[in-house]
Amino acid sequence: MVSIQVKQTEKVGRPDIDAFEAVMFREDRKLGYFVGFEFTGDALFEIDRFQRKEGRTIKPLTVREILDQEIARKLA
Fold it and tell me: For residue 2, what pLDDT is reported?
């Protein structure tokens, strides 16, 4: 199983990622998806650090990326 977090604020920051990491540890998850409108540089840095240090992966997805994928499928 994977963990999924969706944030409805303008930007996802490092504190949001820190909280998600705690959930991943508590639920013993190796993979998580975090959906937001935009990610700060600090958030992306923390995601990278978490993967290198803990061997767990957080995949940041923006709403725009998700919508673009859906549109691309519809146009194909």
Answer: 85
- 8/53 Cα distance (integer angstroms): 28
Q: How far apart are CA 19 and CA 35, in angstroms?
A: 14
Cβ within 8 Å of residue 65, ≥6 positions away: none
Q: Label residue 76 by pLDDT band (50, 70, 90).
A: low
Q: Going by C-beta distance under 8 Å and a sequence separation of 6 or more, which residues neighbour residue 46?
A: 14, 17, 18, 21
Tokens of 22: 């705690």
Residue 61 burial (10 A CB sphere; 0-12, 13-18, 19+): middle
pTM of the model: 0.88
